[in-house]
Design goal:
alpha+beta; DNA Polymerase III, Chain A, domain 2; 27 strands; 17% helix; 44% strand; elongated
Length: 375
């Protein structure tokens, strides 16, 4: 194999593909990155771990077509150090590959091509979604997924498809995030549910962020889901199992509501965090026209700040994990947020509003479990 191309293009593409290679793969060959240079000038770079794979197509001046497998992490690290926007020569012989850029030259050993697994094929195309909207939805819900590997269902994002509506949801039992968005399915009657590990789908969705469409590939019998944007695609293994009916946790009616400025509450919570001890709660005391944000107690350290709010339904005092509350507010973009309660010991529903007397955004909801306080 012999080809020439721009160093920056090679470096960026190798880096993108190598991100899907596990630090300590089960088999050494799975740490390899496949380079397939074709006579028509297309070069396919791919990683082929069955649980998470990537594929990207770029163009080069291919003098001699061929295939080779090289350590992906090593190649990405070296390619990233090359001079930018300089001609790069890549030559692969029987046992080694040589990269030459300006006055720099590196030779690296090849991995056995015959041991490399076959490429992971994309399942059938299910539909397309706006890339920006998709990435925002994944970001909005992924923080609520559990980090406990002993609960694989809860470490996943649940993707529910109902015709032209996508619903993404995630929970760790203490909070629940739900985001709805529109998409264009191949089959308007499609109804299915897919579970994917939150950390993996978040990483690949971020790397595929674009202003154009993202294709979702979901096969009925496939154990993987595929995402494709332009010449770049990923496949990731599905999580097996039935996701709990978490949407039923949202109350049908919330008689107590409070609306306030999101940024003001974020700043107050930031100040309160300096006195909140580990695993302690921040207290939100709502009364007519105001919210008291309180934390700590006694002579060691205490905090209190009064914020303006619009309260309906009566006074209510509740307490929450301050980190979870801050994460929820950080994911929202609107100037105002609304807290909706049934009672102090029940979960609160947090939604966003563009203005104080405006309508809530029904497409994004966060259910936050309170922390019970004892006198």
């Amino acid at each position: 194999m012999r080809m020439r191309l721009e160093s920056a293009l090679f470096s960026e593409t190798v880096s993108w593909v190598a991100k899907t290679i596990q630090p300590n793969p089960a088999k050494a060959i799975l740490g390899g990155l496949l380079i397939d240079a074709n006579e028509d000038g297309t070069v396919v770079l791919s990683s082929n771990d069955p649980s998470l794979a990537a594929r990207a197509v770029i163009e080069a001046s291919v003098e001699e077509p061929g295939k080779c497998v090289v350590n992906g992490k090593l190649l990405a690290a070296y390619a990233g150090s090359l001079p930018k926007k300089k001609p790069l020569s890549v030559v692969a012989e029987e046992t080694r590959m040589t990269l030459t850029c300006a006055n720099a030259e590196m030779t690296v050993g090849l991995l056995p091509l015959e041991d490399y697994p076959e490429a992971v094929e994309l399942p059938d195309l299910a539909g397309t979604v706006d890339g920006t909207d998709w990435n925002e939805a994944v970001v909005n819900v992924s923080a609520s997924a559990s980090k406990d590997d002993s609960l694989p269902l809860l470490t996943s994002i649940c993707i529910r498809i109902e015709g032209t509506k996508l619903t993404l949801m995630a929970t760790d039992r203490y909070r629940l995030s739900v985001k709805e968005l529109e998409w264009e399915p191949v089959d308007p009657a499609l109804e299915t549910t897919v579970l994917v590990r939150a950390s993996k789908i978040a990483d690949i969705s971020k790397s595929l962020t674009c202003e154009g469409p993202v294709e979702l590939h979901i096969g009925d019998d496939s154990r993987i889901i595929g995402l494709k944007a332009g010449t770049m695609q990923n496949t990731v293994q599905k999580t097996q199992g039935d996701y709990p009916d978490v949407l039923g946790l949202f109350p049908e009616d919330s008689p107590i509501t409070a609306i306030l400025e999101r940024a003001a509450l974020q700043e107050a919570l930031k100040r309160a965090s300096f006195v909140v001890e580990k695993n302690a709660a921040v207290r939100l005391n709502f009364s007519e026209g105001q919210l008291e944000v309180a934390a700590g107690q006694g002579e060691i350290a205490a905090f209190s700040e009064i914020l303006e709010c619009s309260l309906s339904g009566g006074d209510i005092n509740s307490a929450f994990n301050p980190n979870y509350l801050q994460e929820a507010l950080a994911k929202m973009k609107s100037p105002f947020v609304r807290f909706a309660f049934t009672q102090a010991t029940k979960p609160a529903v947090i939604t966003q509003l563009d203005k104080e007397d405006g309508d809530i955004d029904p497409t994004y909801r966060i259910l936050q479990m309170p922390i019970r306080l004892y006198d």
